[in-house]
Specification:
Number of domains of chain B: 2
Largest interface: A-B, 41 and 47 residues
CATH class of the largest domain in chain A: Alpha Beta
Oligomer: heterodimer
Helix content of chain B: 25-40%
Number of helices of chain B: 13
CATH architecture of the largest domain in chain B: 3-Layer(aba) Sandwich
Number of helices of chain A: 15
Structural class of chain B: alpha/beta
CATH superfamily of the largest domain in chain A: Thiamin diphosphate (ThDP)-binding fold, Pyr/PP domains
Radius of gyration of chain A: 26 Å
Number of strands of chain B: 14
Chain lengths: 387, 334
């Protein structure tokens, strides 16, 4: 007998009781971005950490300037500057232990360098001599990722695998505001929360995805609010306040390491330069907006804090600038040397064992190179007879 | 050694056994995907694995193919060997960016420092009456992507051996499972399963002298049937089962065509831009002077996969193959 047939006996009941799986209140970000510098909270911060952050910010600013100059000299194909965002980059690098992993996007060269990667190795993607100029395992830095947000699920998988193996490793993944619209952002956050993976997502909200402003990117109250829908805490921080970014990321990393699962951190910052040297930012933003952010410069903020409290003097500032200048000079000199490239590298790393098809193509290229070499050696002799 | 009777087994059972043995042999092998755990997969290929190895190694993931493959990339970066299931051919498309932009090229972009030993299991092809998006033959997309190996078994024994080889490979392998052969049976000893040739070797399934049928996966049994039927017409057909599309076994294929002088490539996926065009070109380049007729293709039509009630008209069957074989009498025609 079906339910319809026994209608007389059937008594409709309310739907079974519903309960939310998680209390959303603790997951919600604060109304305003967390700040430390210029507040009483700054006095709790270890002065040595503030000095380290300062030195790295100055280096980072100089690095951005030098890399931008290298594009103008034709030494780099392109450079997406992180000028204005150095506090996020530096904090992301300094907050991690050696065993942890960093998953940078294409704009995060500076985070990789601040983590200890050779500046030249960090630039091979942008110079064009090889996609990734370093062994990711050596520094635990994934390759700089050009497609948007696709590195986020990698960070989740790596953190998950580490936990399965019993290692207390945390993965920190960097993404921009535009990247939060990608499907991989959603899938990564969802997997991370379901698996309670020890991973931290840092969104550097720098205001624009190339030219598209945040208002056209999302209708969410903030990007940090997106965390609640996945069941992880969302945190909002002043991305130009190096101490605040460091503090919020440290807490998120500690939370993840202790088995508390993932956190989404939105750092509110600003891209002071164009998307890359190929972009004309005058088309989509006015000078007054840029100037307003210039007054909230990450280096000036920290410098002010340090000098006010007598933690940094003129000699200290000079030392930081000299250190940065030495790094830039070394970078300039080494980037002005042509890299030694072996064309046979094209076939060396497609598969563990090259296919017979690739072996044939490799032989073809070798023959072409040999003919080219003979042509150069033979000069006049081979002129007109090469073919 | 205890001798166990050779008994009938299905391809699905052999695939499941391959996963089980790989997991037992290597603790870094992890199986993940939608429904692979408690349910044992919609085709029951992963049946029993979650019970034996636990949820940490046989993981029911959220329903998100890019997330499944993307997290597998991170797991492989940390030293695991993920085997991911895509459930159905057309469901794999959301994962294409991860596959093409990361899985296929991570070894290359890191100059060998970061190989990704991932096996992507994709049930593919039609003939089971599946509704839309459940019957695509997507192999052309995979073989056009450098950095991937692409293999597909046609027999129960190959299903076991090739899957073991795929999981053991240090490179990513797209493992295409012909779903209409899941329930095909063969006498096979699950207690002493045999390894197969390394990935990249084709095999001659039937020897013949008049022409070669070059095929793979779900079309192999169809070609075997066509070869039997062709005997009545006086044709003695050779059938080459490629087993691996990438790497491609030029040697076995060319040797066969040089013996027979005639060739037909048979596959379900569309002919235009399909694997058959590449195979015909390779055969022509290598065997031109041995050929008595152009290399022909018998493929699915160049249409989106048809609704199930019409699919029999789309799938290359024995008659269409025999028609092509008849057209190989080139001299008589021209």
């Amino acid at each position: 007998m079906t339910v319809m047939e026994q209608r007389g006996a059937y008594r409709p009941t309310p739907p079974p009781a519903w309960q939310p799986r998680t209390d959303p209140a603790p997951l919600l970000p604060d109304a305003l971005p967390h700040r430390v510098l210029g507040t009483e909270a700054a006095e709790r911060v270890d002065p040595e950490l503030l000095r380290r952050l300062y030195a790295q910010l100055v280096r980072g600013r100089r690095y951005n300037a030098q890399a931008t100059a290298l594009t103008k000299q034709g030494r780099l194909a392109v450079y997406p500057s992180s000028t204005g965002q150095e506090a996020c980059e530096v904090a992301a690098a300094l907050v991690l232990e050696e065993r942890d992993w960093l998953f940078p996007s294409y704009r995060d060269t500076l985070a990789a360098v601040a983590r200890g990667l050779d500046p030249v190795q960090a630039l091979t993607l942008l110079r064009g001599d090889w996609h990734t100029g370093y062994d990711p395992h050596e520094h635990r830095i994934a390759p700089l990722c050009t497609p948007l947000a696709t590195q986020l699920p990698h960070a989740v998988g790596l953190a998950h695998a580490a936990r399965l193996k019993g290692d207390d490793v945390v993965a920190l993944a960097l993404v921009g505001d535009g990247g939060t619209s990608e499907g991989d952002f959603h899938e990564a956050l969802n997997f991370a929360a379901v698996w309670q993976a020890p991973v931290v997502f840092l969104v550097q909200n720098n205001g624009f995805a190339i030219s598209v402003p945040l208002a056209k990117q999302t209708a969410a109250p903030s990007l940090a609010h997106k965390a609640v829908g996945y069941g992880m805490p969302g945190r909002l921080v002043d991305g130009n306040d190096a101490a605040a970014v460091h503090e919020v990321l440290s807490a998120a990393v500690a939370h993840a390491r202790a088995g508390g699962g993932p956190t989404l951190v939105e750092a509110v910052t600003y891209r002071m330069e164009a998307h890359t040297n190929a972009d004309d930012d005058k088309r989509y933003r006015g000078d007054s907006e840029v100037e307003a952010w210039r007054a909230h410069d990450p280096i000036a903020l920290l410098e002010h804090e340090l000098t006010e409290r007598g933690l940094l003097d003129e000699a200290g500032m000079r030392a930081a600038r000299e250190d940065a200048e030495a790094m830039a000079a070394d970078l300039r000199e080494r980037m002005n040397q042509d890299p030694a490239l072996d064309p046979m590298d094209l076939f060396a790393h497609v598969y563990a064992q090259p296919t017979t098809q690739l072996l044939e193509q490799e032989a073809q290229l070798r023959a072409e190179l040999d003919a080219e070499a003979r042509h150069h050696e033979g000069g006049h002799e081979s002129e007109g007879t090469a073919r | 050694m205890t001798t166990v009777a050779v008994k009938p087994a299905t391809m699905a059972q052999a695939l499941g056994r391959a996963l089980r043995d790989a997991m037992a042999d290597d603790p870094t092998v992890h199986v993940m995907g939608e429904d692979v755990g408690t349910l044992g997969g919609v085709f029951r290929v992963t049946d029993g694995l979650a019970k034996e190895f636990g949820e940490d190694r046989v993981t029911d993931t959220p329903l998100a193919e890019a997330g499944i493959l993307g997290t597998a990339v991170g797991m492989a970066m940390y030293g695991l060997r993920p085997v991911v299931e895509m459930q159905f051919d057309a469901f794999a498309y959301p994962a294409f960016e991860q596959l093409i932009s990361h899985v296929a090229r991570m070894r290359n972009r890191t100059r060998g420092a970061m190989p990704l030993p991932i096996t992507v299991r994709v049930p593919y092809g039609g003939g089971i009456g599946g509704v839309e998006h459940h019957s695509d033959s997507s192999e052309a997309y995979y073989i056009a992507t450098p950095g991937l190996h692409v293999v597909t078994p046609a027999t129960v024994a190959d299903a076991y051996g090739l899957l073991r080889a795929a999981i053991a490979s240090d490179d990513p392998v797209v493992f295409l499972e012909p779903k209409r052969l899941y329930w095909s049976k063969d006498t096979w000893n699950p207690d002493e399963p045999q390894a197969v040739d390394p990935i990249g070797r084709a095999v001659v399934r039937r020897h013949g002298r008049s022409a070669t049928l070059i095929t793979y996966g779900p079309s192999v049994p169809v070609c075997m049937e066509a070869a039997e039927a062709a005997r009545a017409e006086g044709w003695d057909l050779e059938v080459v089962d490629l087993r691996s599309l990438v790497p491609f076994d030029d040697e076995t294929v060319s040797a066969s065509v040089r013996r027979t002088g005639r060739a037909v490539v048979v596959h379900e996926s569309g002919g235009f831009g399909g694997p058959g065009g590449e195979i015909a070109a390779r055969v022509t380049e290598r065997c031109f002077h041995y050929l008595e007729a152009p290399v022909l293709r018998v493929a699915g039509f160049d249409i989106p996969y048809p609704p199930p009630m019409l699919e029999r008209h789309h799938l290359p069957g024995v008659d269409r193959i025999l028609d092509a074989v008849a057209r190989l009498q080139w001299e008589a025609q021209s």
